[in-house]
Amino acid sequence: MRGMTDHMDFGKRVRFYRERRGLHQWQLGELLNRSEDWVYRVESGRIPVNTVKMLADLADALRVHLEDLQGNPVLLEDQGDHKASVPAIRDALMQSRRLSGSL
């Protein structure tokens, strides 16, 4: 899924991954010991999720990597001919981390 949700804001990514997992807002809320209204407000961008524990719990409940939930960060603004090098290096490093975790 890497790259598919990078253009979305955080709340829309939460909704995308929740729907992909087939959960209703109330079900995700129960997994997190939160209300359906809390999930709605996160997805609509009305409240931030700004604690590391809640981000980790949310990623775990949605069964995604924390990096995917947060979006693909931009490391720097490229001005030269090497525009594709940073994303390519990042993807290669992430791929090796995933492979080593499954071995």
Q: What's this, in brief?
A:
This protein has 6 helices and no strands. By secondary structure, it is an all-alpha fold. The radius of gyration is 15 Å and the shape is elongated.
Would you write up a description of this structure?
- Helices cover 59% and strands 0% of the residues.
- The chain is mostly helical and 103 residues long.
- It folds into two domains: 1-72, lambda repressor-like DNA-binding domains (434 Repressor (Amino-terminal Domain)), CATH 1.10.260.40; 75-103, no CATH class.
- It starts with 9 loop residues before the first helix and ends with a helix.
Query: What pattern of helices and strands is seen along the backbone?
Result: HHHHHH
Q: Please give the alpha-carbon distance between the first and last residues.
A: 21 Å
How many β-strand stretches?
A: 0
> By CATH's scheme, which homologous superfamily of the largest domain applies?
lambda repressor-like DNA-binding domains
Radius of gyration based on Cα positions: 15 Å
CATH top level of the largest domain is Mainly Alpha
Low-confidence stretches: none
- Number of H- or I-type helical stretches: 6
Mean pLDDT: 79
Number of domains: 2
Helix content: 55-70%
Give the strand content.
Answer: under 5%
Give the second-level CATH assignment, the architecture of the largest domain.
Answer: Orthogonal Bundle
Question: What class would the helix/strand composition place it in?
Answer: mainly alpha
Largest sheet: none
Morphology: elongated
> Would you give the CATH topology of the largest domain?
434 Repressor (Amino-terminal Domain)
